[in-house]
Amino acid sequence: DHSAPPSSELLEIAIEVARDAAATAYRMRVEGVSVAATKSTATDVVTAADRAVERQITKALRRLRPADAVLGEEYGMAERGTQPPARVRWIVDPIDGTVNYLYGLAHCAVSIAAEVDGEVVAGVVRNIHTGEEWTATVGGGAWRAGQRLRCSTESDLAQALVVTGFGYDPRRRAHQARVVAELIAHVRDIRRLGAAAVDLCLVAEGRADAYYEKGLAAWDQAAGALVAAEAGLRIGGLKGLAPGPDMVVAAPPALFDPLHDHLARLDAAGGP
Ligand code: IPD
Ligand code: CA
Ligand code: CA
Ligand code: CA
């Protein structure tokens, strides 16, 4: 059977799996976590919890949806049994905001998205510490605690609270710092909160006006970007490109072009 299940069904699975995963992450944090290894740079760390939580999520998805593909940050594409190629792919960030998690800062989350034929159709982001849980299905709106989410209606960039993040590569950070240094004169203020998935969800409910970041991977943004889009934000990359590793901008429609234009100008001004 090659039919894909409705997005609501995929969302229910994502929520169930994310709740158990967040509980594991919380328990491991209480028991005490430390750096297990470094990845791309000395500050790009992974803890035992990142790995254990991803294994738990993959195992649960395998049990509930054996024919689907799973892409996670720590283990990449999980092995699948017999083909045909999967129509459903799960995109998993077991702990988004690992550095916050390590330091005990309550801004980190489990992020699980479901893609059907390459399009993200359902996603959940669950804060490990607060239990805040943002969900969305394509066309079905974005939700938290039974409330439908609407993004900010701010239309003046000078009044906008903008959230951003930085990657782990020091050379890229120098460029990202130059962009922030320029942009800060044109906006209300800038926040660097430390978990891209949660950042996108906060913007979805108007707890900040807009978000941008360069260097995101699929798992950082798959669920959060759907939540943001379903809350009315316009999501894009630079110069008409799709959002991706090069840039993700999420802004209320009236703010998108002004913010984008600053970012495009500053990005063109150089840097890796
Ligand atoms: C990171 C966080 C951070 C963002 C980085 C991501 P991780 O993900 O989302 O806020 O600025 O670009 O890599 O490593 O904590 O899952
Ligand atoms: Ca992440
Ligand atoms: Ca992560
Ligand atoms: Ca990471």
Automatic annotation (TrEMBL):
A GO BP entry: inositol metabolic process
Reaction(s) catalysed (UniProt annotation): a myo-inositol phosphate + H2O = myo-inositol + phosphate
Pfam families xrefs: Inositol_P (PF00459)
CC cofactor: Mg(2+)
Enzyme class, broadest EC rank: hydrolase
Binding-site residues, Mg(2+): E73, D93, I95, D96, D220
Protein EC: 3.1.3.25
Protein name, per record: Inositol-1-monophosphatase
Organism whose genome encodes this protein: Micromonospora sonchi
